[in-house]
Amino acid sequence: MKLENVKIRNFRSIRQLDFKIDSRGLTLISGKNGQGKSSIYAAILYALFNKTQKGQTADAIVNDVIKKDAAVILNYENAGVKYRVERYRKHKSNRNKTLFYVNGVEKTSSSNKLTDELIEASVGMSFDTMLNSFVLGDSLVTSFSKSTDKQRKEIIEDITNISIYKKASSIASDKYKKSKEVLNSVERTKSNLEIKVESLKKQLELEKSQEKQRKENINYAKNSYEASLKEYEDLNKSFEKSKQETSDVPDKIANLKTTLNNLKEEQSNLESPKETNSIQRKLNVEMQKKNTAVERAKHSKADLNKFGSQYKEIKNAKQATCLYCGSPLNEEHKKSELKRLADEGRKCLDVINTEKQVYKEANAAYSKLESEIDKINAYNSQIQPKTIEINNKINNTLSEINLLEKSIDATNMVKSNVESSVRTVNTYKANLERLESEPSIDTSDTLNSLETAENSLKEYQSKFDEDTRKVKVLDGVKVVFSNTGIKSFVLEQVYPAINESLEKYMSVLTDGSISATISAVTENKSGNVSDKINIKVFRDAESTDYDSLSSGEQRRFDVALSLSLQDYVSSNSGINVLFLDEIFDSLDAVGVDKVMTLLKEKSKQYSSVFVISHSTELKDNFDNEIKVVKTESGTKIE
C-alpha cells in the first residue's frame, strides 16, 4: 500500500497543511509537545477509518478555534489501484460527507457507514493493524505486547491478509447454518412424510383386515344360519315323531288316575294297623326304672359293706383311731363313732329295700306292656298282606303315570327346543341379511393417498440426500477456512518470518543479551496447550517474560517487535511509510544510536520514515527535518 499525500484543513490543531507522504526519506518531525506533530498521521488514520489513534471521531476532530470546515483528503494506491478519500466534518459545502474515489471515479455509497466499509476494504487491514504497522510510539492506542489475545490474533490475521479467510469462514458458516436449517426443515418434512406413509400403510392394512373380517363374518353368519336351519329341521322331525308317539298318552294317564283313585278308596276301607310306639316308649321308661334301681341297690350294698368293715375294725381294735384325723379314740368317742357307722349301715339297708320294691313294681309293669305289644303285633300281622298288595298296586300305578307324564314332558321339551331353534334361525338370518347389506370397505382412497405420500417421500428423500451432501461440502469448507485450515497453514509460515526479524532487531538493540519469539500456542505449567498467542522472552538464554523486563528493555522489545511486524506487512502489502512517535523516550544514548542504526536500515525499505520527536538534538541524524509550530491560528510547518 502506497500513501501519496494528504490535504488537511481545520483538523485538530492543524489549520491548513498539504503534506507529501511519499519519497521523503528519513525525516525528523520536530516540535514541542502539544504542537500537533502526531496530528499528521492521525489525519491519515481518520481519513481511512473515521477515527484517530486516540479514538477521536465526529466533531471531536474539528479545530477548536475555527470550529468548522474540517476536511482531510488522502490519496493512496493499493495493488495498482488509485484511491482518494475525502472526509468532511461541519463543512460549509460538504457538511459531514465522506466521498470515495477509485481511479478518479466516485464510488461513494448511499451512507457514510457503507462508504467506510468500501474504504476499509480498499486498505485491506483493520484500524489496529494499520496503526501498529505504520506507527510506532507512545501515542499508540495499544501495542502488540500489551494487546489482548483476541487483538493480537486480529493483528496477525490482518497483516497476513488471512482476514479474508475469516470472512470466508463466516460466509461458509452462515451458508452452512442456512443449509443446515434447510436440511433440518427437509428432514422434518421427510420424517413427517415417513410417519404419514407408515400411518397410511397401517390404515390400508386395517381396511384390508376389516374387509377380510367382514367377509369372514358373512361366511360365519351364513354357516351359522344353515347349521341352525338344519338343527331346526332335525328338531322338528323329532318333535313330530314324539307328538305322534304320545298322542294317546293323555287318555292312558286319565285311565291310570281312575285306577289309582279306586285303589286309594280300597286302601282307605282297610283296617289300619295299630301303632306300638306309645307302648314302646312306656316299655322303655319301665326298663330305665329297673336299671336305675339295680344300680342304686348295688351302690348302697357297697357302702353297707364299707361301713360294716369299719364298724368291725373299730369294735375289735384294742386301740382304735379316728377314721378322719387318725387320732386315738377314747371310749366315749369310740361309742359315738360305732353308733354313726351303725346308723349309716341302716340307711344303706333302707335304700336297698326301697330299690328292691321299685324294681319289682317296674318289672311287673314292663311284663304287662310287653304282653300288649305282642298282642298288637299279632293283630297287625294278620292285616299286613292285603295292605302291602294295595300299596304295591298304588305305587306301580303312580310309576306308570310318572313315565307317561315324562314322555309328555319330553315331547314338550322338544317342542320348546323347536321354538327356540326357530328364534335362533331367525336371528342368524337377520344377522346374515344385515352383514350382506353392509357395503364393502373401499381402499382406493387410502391407496391413492399412500401413493401420493410415497411419491412426496421419494422427492424429499432425494432433496434430503442432496442437501445432506451440500451440508457436508459446506462443513468441509468451514474446516478449510477455520483456524485449523488454510489460516493455520499460513500462520505456520508467518511466525518464523516475524521471529527471524525479531531476532535480528533484538540482537542489535540489546547486543544479543535479550531474545524473544512469538508463537501461536501457549503451554501452561501443567503441560496443557491452548490456542493463545504467546510471547517468550529470554535473557542470556534463560527464560523470563515481558513484564520482568525494565521499561527501557520493554521499549526496545516493542520497537523490535513493531519493526518485525512492519517488515512482514511491507513484504506483503508494500506500505511505503513509517511513523515513529517519540520512540527515543526512555532510551539512553546507546539505545538512541542503535535505534538510529535500525532506522537508517529501515529507510532503505520505506520511501518515507518519519520520526516524531520533541528533541532537536537528533536532527543531525536525519536527511530532512520538518518543524511543527503551533500558532494562534493553528499548527503550521516551517
| Annotation, overall tally of beta strands | 17
Low-confidence stretches: none
Major sheet summary line:
6 strands, antiparallel
**Share of helical residues:** 55-70%
Mean of all residue-level pLDDT scores: 86
For the largest sheet, list the strands in their spatial order: 2-1-4-5-6-7
Based on CA atoms alone, the radius of gyration comes out at 70 Å
Oligomeric state of this protein: single chain
Structure summary:
The chain is elongated, with a radius of gyration of 70 Å. The chain is built from 12 helices and 17 strands. The mean pLDDT is 86.
What would you say this structure looks like, in words?
This protein has 638 residues and is of the alpha+beta class. A 6-stranded antiparallel sheet has the order 2-1-4-5-6-7, with helices on one face. Strands 8-14-15-3-16-17 form a 6-stranded mixed sheet. Helix 5 (163-245) packs antiparallel against helix 9, helix 6 runs antiparallel to helix 8 and helix 10 packs across helix 11. The protein has helices spanning 39-49, 112-123, 127-134, 149-159, 163-245, 249-269, 277-316, 331-437, 444-480, 486-510, 551-573, 589-602; strands spanning 2-11, 14-20, 25-30, 70-78, 81-89, 98-102, 105-106, 135-137, 514-519, 522-523, 529-530, 534-539, 542-544, 577-581, 608-613, 624-631, 634-637. A hairpin with a 2-residue loop joins strand 6 (98-102) and strand 7. The radius of gyration is 70 Å and the shape is elongated. The model has no long low-confidence stretch (mean pLDDT 86). It is 61% helix and 15% strand. The longest helix has 107 residues, at 331-437.
